[in-house]
Design a protein that fits this description.
binds xanthosine-5'-monophosphate; about 525 residues; Rossmann fold; GMP Synthetase, Chain A, domain 3; alpha/beta; 5-stranded parallel beta sheet; 3 domains
Length: about 525
């Protein structure tokens, strides 16, 4: 089908920790990119007809027995190729250069000296700082290749075929430590692959609308709304395509934050004209969760009850054949890891089994997008900023932020504490600087003193993280005075809490949520 955006860059994944980052950078430069496993077939590559191919880095050594490699046919396709780090070594190995183990693993900054400042290296200063992370290195360039740049340790830091558009670079242009990495990638896209840069939110919306209309025809569609960015943007996109054929269902599971159910209802009634059904199922969820302390069991129960409640609501919207999900690219991406095409696709934990049991066909209009791109699409669709800029909130809600048993009392304490925390972050302009922040209820008691009285009360933990996509995260270095205000307010205003602690663990090895 003809889409509004046509150009794409294919990224073949050799298992680098930076593969996703390459995809992001290419898209940030205005060109659509997709990641596929290194052994994606030549036939499929021809079908996709990418404007350029990037071979990612990876942890392997090309001379090892089971090293991941590509078919030499790749070089006959006459599609521009850029090999990054291990990708460079793959090119060199297949085209008869020499790759050997280096005496020292090179990890960190290096100074790149440019010998031929055109094409891929156009407009780059020399020397320029680049980021290296490799064990093996090229000791002999393949025949018919020339060297465009070198570093003290890497005599062939940038190589290029003399007549074909095949390039290899030893460093990582996708990480920001490489000062002119973006310039290099831009050169590859716009000078070597001759892309125009047609990946824009507007083009994405137009092409998605066409696709959804074609897929749905005149049938009915439902969407489980959470009030978060992903499901709201997905709903807005489908609504633009098919209008009243869509009904959105918002379930209050009793595990929402302070005032959240009313807030979502108000936003939806004020900003959207789409069919909207509100279901108050709090008691159903909470009664099933009574006495349950095991995190996995909590998630399972919530998933099951959700299916039942949703099914019931769906019945009233008879004959719906499709279900909209706000699945994003990082949810899909694990299926294209180095394990190859046969790797099992991760079950998206937003809906846990819902589609299979309901025999609904799935529409996932955001499955090619990263979170920040989904936000851009939301802006393009005039989704209000109060939804677009909200922090992510997990499907199981506060159930995974109350360790141990969930009770009304604990929910009340957590809601109040969380509200204060978020209020203070917004007031101090920190809310938008971080990926996610929330309070956690700990089922332990500690001794305190208030007035002249001894207290023996609960502990609230504060979590705040910075992240690009939630796959890794750093604990946020919030200023002490903000933490101090939040702590004072929680202890003074929330009865039942006498201690507040700050979580200083990153992901990995911790996760963002506590359960
Ligand atoms: P973790 O805790 O795994 O979380 O580091 C990564 C991101 O995913 C969110 N999260 C969920 N989102 N359903 C969701 O829709 C879930 O079951 C779920 N569990 C975690 C979490 O808030 C963080 O942004």
């Amino acid at each position: 089908m003809k889409t509004e955006y046509q150009e794409m860059i294919l990224i073949l994944d050799f298992g680098s920790q930076y593969t996703q980052l390459i995809a992001r950078r290419v898209r940030e430069l205005g060109v659509f990119s997709e990641i596929k496993p290194f052994n994606f077939s030549i036939r499929k590559i021809r079908e996709l007809s990418p404007r350029g191919i990037i071979l990612s880095g990876g942890p392997s050594s090309v001379y090892n027995k089971n090293a991941p490699l590509v078919s030499k046919e790749l070089f006959q396709l006459n599609i521009p190729i850029l090999g990054i780090c291990y990708g460079l070594q793959v090119i060199a190995h297949l085209l008869k250069g020499k790759v050997e183990r280096a005496e020292h693993r090179e990890y960190g900054y290096a100074q790149l000296i440019i010998d031929k400042a055109y094409g891929l290296l156009d407009n780059m200063k020399s020397p320029t700082t680049v980021w290296m992370s490799h064990g093996d290195k090229l000791t002999q360039s393949p025949p018919d290749f020339m060297t465009l740049a070198h570093t003290q340790n890497a005599p062939y830091a940038v190589i290029c075929h003399q007549t074909k558009p095949v390039f290899g670079i030893q460093f990582h242009p996708e990480v920001l430590h490489t000062v002119e990495g973006i310039t290099l990638l831009r050169n590859f896209l716009y000078k070597i692959c001759e892309t125009r840069g047609d990946w824009t939110p507007h083009a994405f919306v137009e092409s998605s609308v066409q696709k959804i209309r074609k897929q749905v025809g005149d049938r009915k569609v439902i969407c489980g709304l959470s009030g978060g960015v992903d499901s709201t943007v997905a709903a807005a996109l489908v609504y633009k395509a098919i209008g009243d054929q869509l009904t959105c269902i918002f379930v209050d599971n009793g595990l929402l934050r302070f005032g959240e159910a009313d807030e979502v209802k108000t936003v939806f009634r004020n900003y959207f004209t789409m069919n909207f059904v509100f279901v108050d199922a709090a008691q159903q969820f909470l009664s099933r969760l009574q006495g349950v302390t095991n995190p996995e069991q909590k998630r399972k129960i919530i998933g099951e009850v959700f299916i039942r409640v949703f099914e019931q609501a769906a019945k009233q919207n008879d004959d719906a054949e499709f279900l909209v999900q706000g699945t994003l690219y990082p949810d899909v991406i694990e299926s294209v890891s180095i394990k190859g095409p046969s790797a099992v696709i991760k079950t998206h934990h937003n809906v846990g089994g819902l589609p299979e049991k309901m025999h609904l066909k799935i529409i996932e209009p955001l499955r090619d997008l990263f979170k920040d791109e989904a936000r851009q699409i939301g802006r393009e669709l005039n989704v209000p900023d109060e939804i677009i800029s909200r922090h992510p909130f997990p499907g199981p809600g506060l159930a995974v932020r109350i360790l141990g048993e969930i009770t009304e009392k604990r929910l009340e304490i957590l809601r109040k504490a969380d509200k204060i925390y978020i209020e203070e972050l917004k007031k101090s302009n920190w809310y938008h600087k971080i990926w996610q922040a929330f309070a956690v209820y700990l089922p332990v008691k500690s001794v305190g003193v208030m007035g002249d009285e001894r207290t023996y009360d609960s502990v609230i933990a504060l979590r705040a993280v910075t992240s690009e996509d939630a796959m890794t995260a750093d604990w946020a270095k919030l200023p002490h005075d903000i933490l101090s205000t939040v702590s004072n307010r929680i202890i003074n205003e929330v009865s039942g809490v006498n201690r507040v602690v700050y979580d200083i663990s990153s992901k990995p090895p911790s996760t963002i949520e506590w359960e």
